[in-house]
Design goal:
Helix content is 60%, strand content 13%. It contains four helices and two strands, in the order H-E-H-H-H-E.
Length: 143
Amino acid sequence: MQKLFAVLVVFFGLSACGPMMETRYDFKPPVTKSGMQCVQNCQSDQSSCLERGQHQKAMCRKDVDRRIERDYQMAKDDYIVALKLYAKDPARFSEPVEPRRGYANYGQCDSLGSECVPQYQMCYRSCGGQISEYQVCVANCEN
């Protein structure tokens, strides 16, 4: 009975959501040879930008992980001190709660490198290319 209830909740929860749209792009290349060479430069710049972004994301995630580990070690040290105080005088000190590692929130890292797509599109257009933008339903679509 509980499984049926859970399935119904999920079903109605999802059906209550509107359609999820995704933006897609059609690229029409420049008509001149120099425009095409310009686009190649844009692509090269975008590749470099994406590589930098991936490197920045990786470094950011490592920093988050190091911060979590540092905070956990500090909390563990504090816990050991509090545990010793409690062991000496339980009437005066409350029993400490053992610390847990925090959860990694990489949200601040995810936007790194996000400037690459708009930069590429601006470069592509400046070379004489055209970009058409359109919306496509990817979930909860009405037929």
